[in-house]
Amino acid sequence: MRAWTIGMELEEQFSTKGKAKLTKDIQDRNSATWCLIACDNIPPNASSGYGVFMDHSIKALDTLGWKMDEGKFMEVGERIYNLTRLFNVREGFSRKDDALPLRFHEPRADTGWKLTKADFDMMLDEYYSIRGWDSDGKPTQATLTRLGIEA
């Protein structure tokens, strides 16, 4: 959730390649952006990749005296996303809840393409690994330590 990847998926529409990393990056960017009470759906925010609006956000924060760069901005978003996940884990969420609607596993009427369960599980494993979460979707202690989160 919280990542609208469709504009950046146009080059490889029917591929799982790189989608886990793309999703994570956009989730982190959006988490930081939304703290600014800003909308990521206003062009060029959403249509030009995830870097354009981030550049504007960083400049705005610098103007306010908050020294920020792309790495720090993305880390803010990553910290927010991990805190959100910790809350959900505490409330009983796990890998079983990271699922797509069943229609995603059915062939598309126009192309016949479908996302197999095996492909989804592979992408979820890759996503968890990139996020620094265990195989059940819980942030690891190493991830929390790196982000300065005490849990």
Structure summary:
The protein has a single domain (about 15-145), classed as Aldehyde Ferredoxin Oxidoreductase Protein, subunit A, domain 3, CATH 1.10.599. It has 5 helices and no strands. The chain has helices spanning about 20-35, 50-65, 70-90, 115-130, 140-145.
Please outline the helices and strands.
Layout: H1 19-34, H2 52-63, H3 70-90, H4 117-131, H5 141-146
Helix pairs in contact: 1-3, 1-4
Task: Provide an overview of this structure.
The chain is mainly α and 151 residues long. The chain has one domain (15-146): Aldehyde Ferredoxin Oxidoreductase Protein, subunit A, domain 3, CATH 1.10.599. The protein contains five helices and no strands. It has helices at 19-34, 52-63, 70-90, 117-131, 141-146. Helix 1 crosses helix 3 and helix 1 packs across helix 4 (117-131). The longest helix has 21 residues, at 70-90. It is globular and about 50 Å long. The protein starts with 18 loop residues before the first helix and ends in a 5-residue tail after the last helix. The relative contact order is 0.13.
Structural class: mainly alpha
How large is the radius of gyration?
17 Å
- Helix share bin: 40-55%
Strand content: under 5%
Work out the helix count.
5
CATH class: Mainly Alpha
Order of helices and strands: HHHHH
Overall form: globular
Any idea of the CATH topology? Aldehyde Ferredoxin Oxidoreductase Protein, subunit A, domain 3
Mean pLDDT: 83
CATH level-four homologous superfamily name: Aldehyde Ferredoxin Oxidoreductase Protein, subunit A, domain 3
Q: Could you tell me how far the N terminus lies from the C terminus, measured between alpha carbons in angstroms? A: 23 Å
Tally of distinct domains: 1
Main beta-sheet strand count, sense and barrel state: none
